[in-house]
Amino acid sequence: MAIVSPGFSGRRQSADVQLPPGQYLTEDFPVLTAGPTPRVPTDRWELTVNTEAGQKYTWSWQQLIELPAEKITTDIHCVTKWSKLGTRWKGVSLDVLLEEVETAADFALVQSYGGYTTNLPLEDLLDGQAWIAYRYDDDDITPEHGGPARLLVPHLYFWKSAKWVRGIQLLLEDEPGFWETAGYHDYGDPWREQRYQGD
Amino acid sequence: MSDHVDGNALAGDLREIFAVDLTVATGQCAGCGYRGSVASLRVYQNAPGVVARCPHCEEVVLRLVRAPGRAWLDLRGTVSLEIPLQA
After folding, report:
1. Nearest residue in chain B measured CA to CA from A82
2. For residue A78, which residues of chain B lie inside 8 Å, CB to CB?
3. Cβ of B74 and A181 within 8 Å?
4. pLDDT tens digits for range A130-187
């Protein structure tokens, strides 16, 4: 009798999967948005890192895609309770982008085209935990899912993975972002179910 | 399909927090000064909370987040709300 390994199916079986508390599995990719979808042509796109000392580092689209990229396969967890397994992305690690950046900052405020912001400790952007992603499932990231480029920080709830990313402000003091100023948790660890302030 | 609905979608949530139906109130946008009824706002509700934007400049004028047993209402984008009352 042939032995069929679930590993060859290319997708983990849901029974094998442990989800963060309160999450359910989804196969589709829900689109959540707090406003109109920005459509930023890549010839006008840029990413800026501003340091607490006022230094500015900028990458054009061409400069971004010429940097060493990684393929990332990761589970993602939305604070609205859906989780999606094995999502496949391509992007540039923040370790690469921040390598030459001189900073004493402990915090980052990520800024998006369209005005969205989200905050996180700088250490959560480093050590292979975060990317500027520009491909999803072997395709360009659609504007609805944050293209041309979005932040990917999959170990935190997905509202931290800012769509339409355009900048990172490095800060000495924590500065809460769009949802963090409206009741959501400052850090947002799905495994500790840090959904709302005080969780 | 439109990605937003109109401000009447705020009626249920706001009625729970305020005793009156605030969708008939007139608000002023802190971004551009536009004055209009709460019902005329552009409401994005496929999100972790409800986000209402000015129909004139698209700035956020109201945010409402619901959690079990509590809610947060952020009105920093609203200069004022004129609420009609019975004389």
Report:
1. B48
2. 48
3. yes
4. 999 999 999 999 999 999 999 999 999 999 999 999 999 999 999 999 999 999 999 9
Q: How far is A181 from chain B (nearest CA, A)?
A: 8
pLDDT greater at residue A152 or residue A13? A152
Q: Is A171 helix (H, G, I), strand (E, B) or coil?
A: strand
Residue A18's contacts (CB-CB under 8 Å, 6 or more residues apart) are none
CA–CA distances in Å: residue B50 to residues A12, A179, B82: 34, 11, 21
Q: Is residue B87 assigned to a domain? A: no
Closest by Cβ to B49, choosing from A30, A35, A179: A179
Domain containing B23: what range? 5-82
- B45 domain-assigned: yes
- How many domains is chain B partitioned into structurally? 1
Domain presence at residue B77: yes
What is the nearest CA distance from B51 to chain A, expressed in angstroms? 6
DSSP result, B34-47: -EEEGGGSEEE-SS
Q: Is A154 exposed, middle or buried (0-12, 13-18, 19+ CB in 10 A)?
A: buried
Which residue type, as a one-letter code, is found at position A144? E
pLDDT of B32 above 80 = yes
Shortest distance between the Cα of A7 and any Cα of chain B, in A, equals 34
- Domains in chain A, ordered, with CATH? 62-199 (3.90.420.10)
